[in-house]
Amino acid sequence: MSALEANEGVLVNNDRVNEALKIIFDHYNGRNFTIISHRKNQYTVDIDVYALKLMKKLRALAIVSNDDSVREKALIEQLAFNSSFAFFENIEDAKGWAESVAI
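Above: the chain's sequence. Below: its structure in token form.
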């Protein structure tokens, strides 16, 4: 399980995601993994990132935020993601979920 957080106002695009996923992929030695995306800052995720080859190694994705606009954007992302996807209002719940899908 890995947790990610982007800076305020950035565009999370293919280059940024590929860079982060390569680091995570190397850390997990090619095994599948789960990401918790803590979205306490406002930023935009390019929906095309979900088509990246390394995204297929991603077992599950948890989005954490208590902002309704973030939840609305995440629902659109969920349509592009072909594995387990969930939305949480706090990190602890997301961690519990991530541990359960890792089994």
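The chain has a mean pLDDT of 88.
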